[in-house]
Amino acid sequence: MKIFEINTVCGGGSTGRIAADLARMLEEKGDTCRIAFARGSAPEDVSAFRFGSKAEIAWHGVMTRITDRHGMYSSHATKDLIAEMVRYGPDLIHLHNVHGYYLNIKRLFEFLRTYGKPVLWTLHDCWTYTGHCSHYTGVSCEKWKTQCETCPQKRNYPGSLLIDASRRNYKTKKALFCSVPDLTLVTPSNWLKNEVQCSFFGQPSRLYPAGARCEVIPNGLDLNVFRPREEKKEALFGAAVKGKKVVLGVANVWTEQKGFEDFIRLASMLGSDYQLVMAGVDETRKKRLPSNILAFSHTKNIDELAAFYSASDVYFNASIEETMGMTTGEAICCGTPVIVYRSTAVPESVGDGCGYVLKPGDLEGVKRAAAAICSNQEEYRNACLAYRDTFDKERAHEAYYRLYRALTDRKG
Fold first, then answer.
1. What pLDDT shows up at residue 410?
2. Which domains does the chain possess?
3. Whole-number Cα distances in Å, 287 to 284, 308, 314
4. Which residues in 296-310 are b (16+ Cβ under 10 Å) and which e?
5. pLDDT of residue 301
């Protein structure tokens, strides 16, 4: 098989690591894979093609802020991408994130419609079937089920300062994305699959009388990295945690939807025998935190991140918008019990005995759950260790490989 992957990044970030790991898996099995990407650099051990330019990405961002037509620029970059795909001649094209100011979706999907090869599309967020946003739970919006318009998140990523084109965007996406004759969608959670089936993808069409095909393959983790570490709290977090129970929170970007305000409120509720730690906090948000929260900047070192999980007593995922919630699984794999909110896909990652699932905003419940975990740490830790194999990325790889084979064999 010859597989061609397309993503914003390659090797970095969660989606970039997934793309690179799939490429390595294919090479190990004797197949070939090439990854096209637009930002950052690629690992040396994968075949990759960087296209576009910083100037074109910047222009795409500027025009998005003016017109709200994200995905309708970067024509030259997309032309180069298509030329590389034709040269490579893949048996299957695997899409990941096609948003991020680097692709012209009209050019790309017009090509995919006529290329005649299967297209597999892993949805890492909700942008694919909305008229603007990548998540909508925080504002309780359901316009995406029928027709987006007057977007309540116009200024959020991919933000527009002037025009609201959500109605037009919705119609454009529906027409383009549902025009590919051999399209299979993959979601990392049952929650996202259910959402997809309520979107225009789930509506009967000429190509898909029963709606678009959709499979669930949870994102996997490298269990050699996310494993219990023998880390001392003081060595990682400083003297402030000595003799205290550590409650950790991790986010790539801390927002209200990720639970930033909930951590601030929780800090005033926990006793002096607890220490809240937040990782991934930028300098602006650090200034808003009370003195009794320890804040660390974002780290790209996943070994350090695994050490943070291992040295903590409880992991608190206060996010209300996740298509899977990888940090929950990362914590469990490191033997750290979790507390999460019953929102979107996050509860799906919590195995029996691994922690608590609570109503969003129930900070009194979080306080009680943290106390219960800390009073019986070993029992919860053992439950986490017994459940960690569920997240093994080898399971995800095998599921993807079976799907690659099924799609290419059927086409052949």
1. 79
2. 2-220+393-411 (3.40.50.2000), 233-391 (3.40.50.2000)
3. 6, 22, 24
4. beeeeeeeebbbbbb
5. 85
